[in-house]
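step 4 of 6: structure.
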Amino acid sequence: ETGVTQSPTHLIKTRGQQVTLRCSSQSGHNTVSWYQQALGQGPQFIFQYYREEENGRGNFPPRFSGLQFPNYSSELNVNALELDDSALYLCASSETGTGSAGEKLFFGSGTQLSVL
Amino acid sequence: GNSVTQMEGPVTLSEEAFLTINCTYTATGYPSLFWYVQYPGEGLQLLLKATKADDKGSNKGFEATYRKETTSFHLEKGSVQVSDSAVYFCALALRNFNKFYFGSGTKLNVKP
């Protein structure tokens, strides 16, 4: 049990719709990262938020956006959904965003998004 | 660029067999290396890590040694159990930024 919770656990949307995924980070953690895990693949970095500011972004288009709130919980928003967006979306929290020799990430169980 | 390559699965072993899952990496800097494990229906959990060359990470009978000369971080266990059945991910993270690069995962099936 990592203390990172994500909601919802499963979601079905149609192409073109918008979706919001939520993450509550582990107590005491001020950094949240989002990863996309396609079926049979490893997680791919989407972006990271540190103290409510974006702190790095992977190779994802602008229709993937995020927020981090003062309590360090976070949202991932995806606009204009495409079929290829179907994946498991993982949220991970850590103590700081400064990357001290690769600090430990605590992952949630993920949100399984299906785009039809 | 930065990337991780791990052996394709699934790997099927009998209980008490020896396990090796190969992992090699490419990095633009000096990375820290990790093995994460994902059980069915769950998120990823850190299994072990090593932050510098020749370090050995170990946990729950699993071991991996950071080999800078061969850019490898192979996962080993001397005697696997049925409960070790899961997907194992090798990953690297560069210093000064907490972004992880994951391999594609290796599924391990352990039969009684």
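step 5 of 6: annotate
 - The two ends of chain A are 32 Å apart (CA to CA).
 - Chain A touches chain B at residues 2, 4, 31, 33, 35, 40-45, 48, 56, 58, 90, 92, 94, 96-105, 107-110 (CB under 8 Å).
step 6 of 6: archive
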